[in-house]
TrEMBL record:
This is RNase H type-1 domain-containing protein. It comes from the Eukaryota. SUPFAM superfamilies: Ribonuclease H-like (SSF53098). InterPro entries: RNase_H-like, RNase_H-like_dom_plant, RNaseH-like_sf, RNaseH_domain, RNaseH_sf. It holds the Pfam family RVT_3. One of its GO terms (molecular function) is RNA-DNA hybrid ribonuclease activity. Gene3D superfamilies: Ribonuclease H-like superfamily/Ribonuclease H. It comes from Rhododendron griersonianum.
């Protein structure tokens, strides 16, 4: 009980820190016409979408997570990423979803869309899912516990629709410094964000 309270407080402080250091980047809306390429989908008005991804290299066991939060206009609201120590790509993906949920709760977004391109993780988090994977069960249990009093939607998306979070995770795994403030994102990432809109 004390551990859960301490964890919730720490996540709240982390959220406050990120909120204080981040500002919005407004990206102009683009019309894609009849493109058949899967695109990032905007959340409902007033909602935020938390796209996440994990990156893992089995040869050197390096791993990272990324979270990219956007509003209904496609504007980047928050960004988070970091290197982590996990044993598999699936664990990196589950860790990223866990961070998504923690961030959403820290900002009081109980109706957020949590989106990942890891279909197996998303499937395990669906209501009444009987699917289990003991290699990541501790992460899944945390996600389910943290989400108990929320209306989170855990959604799968195609890798192409999650390319911004993937770019952040892959670069973070390689140790590339990516600013947490949306107003100072790398040009490459801004280009990917524009392609989504």
């Amino acid at each position: 009980m004390l551990i859960n309270l301490t964890l919730k407080r720490a996540l709240g402080f982390h959220g406050e820190f990120l909120a204080a250091t981040c500002s919005q980047i407004n990206v102009p809306v683009r019309n894609h016409g009849d493109s058949n390429v899967p695109k990032w989908q905007r959340p409902l008005n007033g909602s935020w979408k938390f796209n996440c991804d994990g990156a893992f290299n089995p040869s050197d066991k390096s791993a990272a997570f990324a979270v990219l939060v956007r509003d209904e206009n496609g504007s980047v609201v928050k960004i988070n990423h970091g290197r982590i120590r996990v044993s598999s790509a699936l664990a990196a993906e589950a860790w990223a979803i866990r961070i998504d949920v923690s961030m959403a709760l820290a900002w009081g977004k109980k109706d957020a869309v949590i989106e990942s391109d890891c279909q197996s993780s998303v499937n395990m988090l669906q209501p009444r899912s009987g699917l289990k994977n003991w290699t990541i069960q501790a992460f899944l249990d945390d996600i389910i516990s943290f989400s108990a009093n929320s209306n989170f939607v855990f959604s799968w998306c195609n890798r192409q629709a999650n390319r911004c979070a993937n770019w952040i995770a892959c670069n973070s795994r390689l140790g590339v410094g990516i600013p947490l403030a949306p107003c100072s994102l790398p040009v490459e990432l801004c280009s990917l964000i524009r392609l989504d809109l």
